[in-house]
Amino acid sequence: MSAPARAYFTTLDGGAALRQVVLDAIDRARLAASRGADAALEIMAFSFTDAGVADALLEAARAAPSLRIRLLADWQQGGRHPAKQARRLTGAGNGAIEVRYTLDQPYYWDPDDGLVRWSYAASAGLFHHKSMLTVLDGAPSHLVAGSFNWTKKAMRMSENVIALDAGPSSAAALAAMRREFNSIWNDPSASLSPVDAEAWFAAVVARLESGAAPPAPPPFRRSGEEGVEVADAGDRRVEDGPVLLAFSAPRERCAPRSNAGHSLANASRQFAGLSASRGSVTPLTNANLAKAAVQASAPGDVISIAAFALSRRAPEYNALLHAARRGVRFRVLLAPGRAASAGAYLHRRAADEGLDISVRIADRRMHQKYLIGHGTRTVVTGTANFTPDAHDRHYEARLCIRGCEDLSARFLSDFSTLWKSAREMEDQ
C-alpha cells in the first residue's frame, strides 16, 4: 500500500523539519483562504510556547482575514508566563483567532506557605492532544499530529510528526478528529473561553483561600457541532480501513458513557481487529488499537516499541507479555526515569520465563510513543503513553496505519537509530 501519511523525526530529519511541517500547513491554509476557499485551522495543543508558530498564525490571520483559526489549549496554557502562546493569541488576529481552554482544577492549598499550588495529582486530566486539522470548504483536508509539542524544547528531543492528507483510506480518521475537536470546543463543561477561564480560576482560588473544598470539574455535556450530540447506542459504526484513529477522555467525567473520546459519535465506534483473519468487532479505543497490533503479529515476528512512559499496569504491557509467551519477539526502547523501572521488571520477567524481549534505555530525552509490527507493517503512534492515565484520565489520540511498507520503514529507521545508541538493560 502506498503511504497514506508521511512521518518526520527529529532523529532523522532534525527538529526544525518537524516545526516546518506545522508552518507549511499554516501557510497552505492561508494560501487557500486567500484564493477564496472557506478555510479553517482547528488546533489542539498541550504545550505551545513556540513564538515562531504563533507568529505564523498571526500572519496568516492578517494576510487572509477569512481564515478561521481555533485553538483548544490545555488549562495550563492559560497561565501568565510570557512564553505561553495561547494567552498571547487570545484576542489577536483581527478576531480570526479564537482560543478556548480545557476546564480543569489542578490546584491545592499549601498551608505552610499560604499559597495555591499546581498538582498533577489534583488535575482532572491533561489535554494531551498535539494536532492541527485543516478544513477546506467544510471538509477535513489535512492533519498534522504526533508526539511533537509546539515548543523549542521538543525540537531538541526525540519526537515525531505525522502528516496525513484526506483520501479514501484516511477520510474516516480525519472526520473523527474534527468531531472530537468540535465536541470539546462546544461543550462548556469541557472547555472555557478566556473570560470564563479567568472566572473559574478566581472561584477556585477563593474557595481554597477560605479553607473550603474547590469546585470540581463537572461531568461532560458532550455538545456536538450543532448543539447537544446524541449517539444511538444501537448504532455503533464499524471502521475497517487501513487508517484508524482512536481517542480517550477523562473517564470520571464521561460517566456513564464510554471514555473512548469526548465525542459520543467517536466513543461509539468499533473496529474489526488488525489480523488477516480479523475477528469480532471491538470498541475503537487507544488501548484496543495497541493490543490489536500486538495480537496481529505471528510467532517469530518482531515488534519494536519506543515508549516515553511505560507502566506495568497498562493494558499494552500485559498484551506484550501474552504475545511474547506465544513466540512474538520484542525490542523495547524506554526513556530514562520511571519507564526504566518498568523496563527493569520486564527484563527480569523475560529472563525468568525465557521470553525473547530485549530492553534498552535511550541515551537522550526520548518522547516517542509508538509501536511497529515488522511482519504486519503496522504502525501505532500518537500522544498516548503506555500508562493507565493515558487511557483513563487524559485527553489523548492514537493513530494506527497498517499494511504500509513505506511508513513502517521510516519508523523502523528512527527506532534503529535510537536503538543503536541506547544502553542495554542490565541484570539487577
Task: List the topology elements.
Elements: E1 5-9, H1 10-13, H2 15-34, E2 39-45, H3 51-63, E3 68-73, H4 85-89, E4 97-102, E5 107-110, E6 115-118, E7 130-136, E8 139-146, E9 160-165, H5 171-185, E10 191-192, H6 194-209, E11 223-224, E12 227-228, E13 238-239, E14 243-248, H7 251-254, H8 264-267, E15 270-271, E16 282-283, H9 286-295, E17 302-307, H10 315-325, E18 329-334, H11 338-353, E19 357-361, E20 369-373, E21 378-382, H12 388-392, E22 396-401, H13 405-421, E23 423-424
Parallel strand pairs: 2-3, 3-4, 13-15, 17-18, 18-19
Antiparallel strand pairs: 1-9, 2-7, 4-10, 5-6, 7-8, 8-9, 11-12, 14-22, 15-16, 17-20, 19-23, 20-21, 21-22
Summarize the structure in words.
There is one protein chain. The chain is α+β, with helices and mostly antiparallel strands and 428 residues long. It has two domains: 5-228, 2-Layer Sandwich (Endonuclease, Chain A), CATH 3.30.870; 238-424, Endonuclease, Chain A (2-Layer Sandwich), CATH 3.30.870.10. It has 13 helices and 23 strands. It has an eight-stranded mixed sheet with strand order 1-9-8-7-2-3-4-10, with helices on both faces. The chain has an eight-stranded mixed sheet with strand order 14-22-21-20-17-18-19-23, sandwiched between helices. β17, α10 (315-325) and β18 form a beta-alpha-beta unit. 52% of the residues are buried.
